[in-house]
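Ticket #4471: structure output looks truncated?

Reporter: J.K.
Steps to reproduce: submitted the chain below (250 residues) through the standard prediction queue, then opened the result file.
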Amino acid sequence: MEIFGVDIGGSGIKGAPVDLNRGDLAQERHKVLTPQPATPDGVAGCVVEVVRHFDWDGPVGVTFPGVVTGGVTRSAANMDKAWVGVDTAALLSSRLDGRPVTVLNDADAAGVAEMAYGAGRGVDGTVILLTLGTGIGSALFTDGHLVPNSELGHLELKGHDAETRASVKAKDDGELTWEHWARRVGKYLAHVEMLFSPDLFIIGGGVSRKPEKFLPLIEGVRARIVPAELQNNAGIVGAAMAARSAAAAQ
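Returned output as attached by the reporter:
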């Protein structure tokens, strides 16, 4: 079974049909740059471009980097503030000629995919997936059940939003070495561990392609830490899973 997934990020918007029997992309993904400013109209146009690249005509799942409830975006830390309060599912559906659109938080989508097909498969207890990129997204699971919109990237760390200290953007903007950045990530993980006592951390986002660069350098964390197996495609897969669930519920 194939369903289309789109992953909206602070720097890029990417999508592809997903083979949900395998939990992998059915075709090579298509990516466009996120417009600046990342307004609803501009981003919606990019989503349409990605979907039409494949001549897709069925349901579409879409991730968004912020809190999403009932298809409405409630926060937009790394996007234009005009997104707050927008019925994003309705907006994208109208731009996609009425195709059914399901919208969910980007890290939640990645987490759902990893729990079904990747590093979290079969893991009980508390699992936290963290996507390290433009910001820090989080997905919190207890015995396989998602607690949506956890937004742990906005926990305070040394008087700042954690994502301003430990995201990949913070590493790049500060020109930090892998060692320096790994120390920051370790302090952040230790703080999250103190609050939630997870059995497993899954590290996602584009940086999950290079786990050897930083995971061995992280200290002071008791929980097991592993890279996301679906890497940066997890959001697309999770978006497609959400669209399938929505279609099945109708």
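Triage note (M.O.): checked the attachment and the full token line is present. The chain is about 30% helix and 25% strand.
Status: closed, working as intended.
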